[in-house]
Amino acid sequence: MASYTLEGHTGTWEVVVGLEVHAQIISKSKLFSGASAAYGGAPNTHVSFIDAGFPGMLPVINKECVAQAVRTGLGLRARINLFSRFDRKNYFYADLPQGYQISQFAHPIVGTGEVEIELQDGTIKYIGITRLHLEQDAGKSMHDQHPSKSVIDLNRAGVGLMEIVSEPDIRSPEEAGAYLRKLRQILRYLGTCDGNMEEGSMRADVNVSVRKPGEAFRTRCEIKNVNSIRFVMHAVEAEAMRQIEVWESGGEVVQETRLYDPSKGETRSMRSKEDAHDYRYFPEPDLLPLILEQDWVDDLKAMLPELPDEKRARFCQEYGISYYDAGVLVAEQATADFYETLAKGRDGKLAANWVTGDFFAAMNRTGKSIENPPVSVEALGQLLDLITDTTINGRIAKTVFEEMVETGKMPTAIVDENGMRQVTDTGAIDEAVTKVLANNPDKVAEYKSGKDKLFGFFVGQVMKAMQGKGNPALVNEAVRKQLG
Ligand code: ADP
Ligand code: MG
């Protein structure tokens, strides 16, 4: 693998990255209250007394959120801690009415795990997971709604979050991007987080440091709340370059919290780094420790859906398609399901070629999605059957497909209406070949004097004379025979 390095005037630098991802849990209600956890809604309509921090209110753990965290831990091949505990993380902010966040500090629900990532050149790498813990989300302060006031929407306050912390195993912007894409894919397959970074349901804190190859880690900076994979990749690069400049000019990188400004492509200091002791963590007195039964965890494990890595391996094996194509097809669960419905009982490679080729192209062109596809899986299946049973040839199939996209008609109807059936009648094919050769005596002479490349010209002319409907293998054979 070509490793990623940056060059400064003192030589080569390596980049070290660890990510803390906040993933909003998919659940009906919040982590410790019965208020709706749905995204959006009129401001401050999904708020219980608990979320609003009223004195004397008692949090009650939402079992489904716990199950979601366990499922996620299992999907990350991680250790599930049967004993975990909640802690209070104290800080003051207007969007945190309790004055503290209930989180897990010393005893997270999930311990070490790993995520397999694949780089552009096909290299496989494992990124270690340090831990996953449960915590409450905060509300949203908005500073652009009123000329002189800030307003607060507490709908998000108290929604369950999983904070997923990686080891500092990431070594390039590409690896950071691959890790986030893979993590999002796993969360979506599991149904534990929708991974929608634009709506803020998945956010990343990006820890970056640089070092000379072979050195111990140097001081890192943490870039807060980056909300797209592309920005994470840019932020890693921009921050690494800044740190190299600091070190090379004789300065020292100080540990701090920074913000990434996408419009400028640079990071800027936000505040000096806070340490755990700044938050005065202590065990949450209103909640008992969380104790899970191994049987319950085992049941959750038994019910897990097939995850992308397993599905990819199975697709290669069951349908005989390439590892690359299988990767494209499992990228989203809905695409994988579409493919599998199509491929069942058909030629798996033919199905993969059509889905990743003409079908994806049509989806992009029409702006449709896999949930609302440009052609139904039944219609595409019928088209493949027409190719396989030689009713139509591959080239005509493309024309039929375009008409399916445009009109929504089934392929058999299109083929019948337009008389597109493939001609396999060798008499008719021979006749067409004879005509083409008779009309091009000079080209025939050239061919016979050694210009082999003209073979394709004759085949093309015959196909054209037959409106593209000739069986390609039979046309080739007839041309060869008549040219002698
Ligand atoms: P904190 O809780 O103070 O943010 P952690 O030790 O939990 O600190 O680390 C947070 C993140 O920082 C982790 O994702 C970890 O991989 C990453 N990290 C730790 N040290 C470094 C380093 N020297 N360079 C880059 N990332 C680092
Ligand atoms: Mg942190």
Describe this structure in words.
- With 484 residues, the chain is of the alpha+beta class.
- The protein folds into 3 domains: 5-300, no CATH class; 306-417, no CATH class; 426-483, Arc Repressor Mutant, subunit A, CATH 1.10.10.410.
- The chain has helices spanning 63-75, 173-190, 229-248, 294-302, 308-319, 323-330, 333-343, 348-366, 377-388, 394-407, 411-417, 426-439, 441-448, 454-465, 472-483, and strands spanning 5-8, 11-24, 83-84, 87-90, 100-103, 113-118, 124-136, 140-142, 151-153, 160-166, 202-211, 221-226, 256-261, 266-272, 282-283, 290-291.
- The strands form 4 sheets. Strands 1, 2, 6, 7, 10, 11, 12, 13 and 14 form a 9-stranded mixed β-sheet that branches. It has a 3-stranded antiparallel β-sheet with strand order 5-4-15, with no helix packed on it.
- The longest helix has 20 residues, at 229-248.
- The structure holds adenosine-5'-diphosphate (ADP) and magnesium ion (MG).
- Magnesium ion (MG) is lined by residues 20, 205, 222.
- Magnesium ion binds at residues 20, 205, 222.
